[in-house]
Amino acid sequence: MPSKRLREKLTTENLWLYILSLLRSRDMYGYELREAIHTRFGFKPGNVTAYRVLYALKRRGLVEIVNKESSGRERKYYKITVTGKEEYAKGVTMIRSLLAKL
Question: What's the pLDDT at 47?
Fold first, then answer.
């Protein structure tokens, strides 16, 4: 069905936008991000998919890794960068512009 394909295109295939949205409020580790996406946006990306997107965001300078202690162990937290905030804003603007034309 076309609506199912549209949902996939707007969610999983644009996961970067959801990740940056969540990281704007606070730093998070990978598993925590997946759970927050499920809770807030209603879909759960696969483990591999989420980490592939996070690594791509890091390579592009949109997020950085910060090591922090959590529950007695060190974890890799992802933090949005200034460039990441700028790209997020561009993505949201683009989506709003497209929706206004529908």
Answer: 86
What is the rounded CA–CA span in Å between residue 32 and residue 70? 12
* pTM for this predicted structure: 0.92
* Segments in the chain below pLDDT 50: none
Residue 85, number of CB atoms within 10 A of its CB: 14
Concatenated DSSP letters of 18-81: HHHHHHTT--EEHHHHHHHHHHHHS----HHHHHHHHHHHHHTTSEEEEEEEETTEEEEEEEE-
The domain limits of the chain are 2-100
d(CA 21, CA 73): 26
pLDDT for residue 72 = 85
CATH topology of domain 2-100: Arc Repressor Mutant, subunit A (1.10.10)
